[in-house]
Write a sequence for this structure.
């Protein structure tokens, strides 16, 4: 599916490892580690629906919507069991929201506040001024702050975890106590954000060059020629890549990300996903309406193949790394939230396997 010229696409890029001694917060865009929860939010670590193992935290995206009074964070989790690899059922995406007053009310509880530098807390949704709604709907949401969920559709999980460094009720370290002991903790990295239109002048040094070199060696294609492919030898090389894979969607995917192969995340709220393989004909029907307010879900962001090589257990080389092509995340168009809620809302995602996973390792 082609991206509309009117869509704003933001890309997330690994911006260095996070020092274990440095506290992160709910507004940190990051890979791995454990989720940083809002002070009112508590979390029971999600379980894989296929093997019943605890899921590992993959990414945290701080993405408040411009017309909303809420802070807003999305956390994605996945199962590292090789037998579950590449299956959508082994992943979970959770959306959490919180008002400023809720945060201020917990300052005396040593909550880790949002003190991240501007680069690591870029507003992904600054152009989503109406978040898919008309003016009347915006006013209603701004006044009430909520849309009442239908609790009979989704069963909310029990209260558990904590913001980093926060001890809940009696000083028990809930995150350490309630996270399953066998869950892999991925090494943590910052994610920096930039607009895709700014990538022409972007050059990440060694990691980018290595990915480009590996791609060119494996595919016999010069990435610079793919970018400008139109006629002559460039067109011939592009066609060779298409023939080799037998998949024009994959080749188009590679062409689209060739300006920045190391991007780990693409964000386009209510935009169009970038499929790595031909999607099912009923892909739109596959995305269910929000189980809480009944609104349609919209595409929000996707995880990219370059993320795979960054997902290793903290301090070790994981024997069970995740493998995927792209993970597409869809969220409630109205970003509904029940006032006073203390548990995240589960959203929808699906995984497309990578037809050439070795390319990104």
């Amino acid at each position: 599916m082609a991206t509309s010229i009117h869509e704003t696409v933001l890309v997330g890029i690994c911006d260095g490892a996070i020092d274990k001694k440095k506290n992160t917060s709910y507004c940190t865009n990051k890979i791995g580690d454990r989720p940083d929860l809002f002070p009112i939010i508590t979390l029971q670590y999600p379980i894989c629906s296929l093997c019943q193992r605890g899921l590992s935290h993959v990414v945290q995206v701080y993405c408040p919507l411009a017309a909303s009074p809420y802070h807003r964070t999305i956390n994605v989790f996945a199962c590292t069991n090789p037998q579950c690899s590449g299956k959508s059922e082994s992943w979970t995406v959770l959306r959490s929201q919180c008002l400023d007053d809720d945060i201020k009310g917990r300052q005396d509880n040593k909550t880790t506040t949002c003190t991240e530098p501007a680069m690591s807390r870029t507003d992904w949704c600054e152009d989503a001024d109406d978040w898919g709604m008309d003016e009347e709907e915006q006013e209603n949401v701004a006044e009430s702050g909520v849309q009442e969920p239908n609790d009979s559709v989704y069963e909310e999980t029990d209260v558990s975890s904590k913001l980093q460094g926060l001890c809940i009720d009696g000083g028990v370290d809930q995150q350490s106590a309630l996270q399953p002991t066998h869950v892999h903790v991925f090494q943590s990295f910052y994610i920096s954000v930039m607009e895709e239109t700014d990538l022409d002048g972007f050059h990440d040094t060694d990691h980018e060059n290595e990915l480009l070199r590996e791609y060119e060696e494996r595919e016999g294609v010069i990435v610079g020629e793919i970018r400008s492919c139109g006629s002559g030898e460039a067109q011939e090389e592009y066609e060779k890549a298409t023939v080799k894979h037998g998949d024009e969607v994959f080749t188009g995917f590679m062409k689209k990300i060739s300006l920045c192969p190391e991007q780990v995340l693409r964000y386009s709220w209510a935009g169009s996903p970038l499929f790595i393989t031909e999607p099912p004909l009923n892909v739109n029907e596959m995305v269910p309406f929000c189980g809480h307010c009944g609104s349609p879900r919209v595409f929000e962001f996707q995880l990219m193949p370059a993320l795979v090589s960054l997902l290793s257990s903290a301090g070790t080389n994981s024997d069970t790394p995740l493998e995927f092509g792209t993970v597409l995340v869809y969220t409630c168009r109205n970003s509904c939230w029940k006032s006073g809620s203390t548990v995240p809302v589960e959203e929808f995602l699906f995984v497309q396997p990578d037809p050439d996973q070795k390319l990104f390792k």
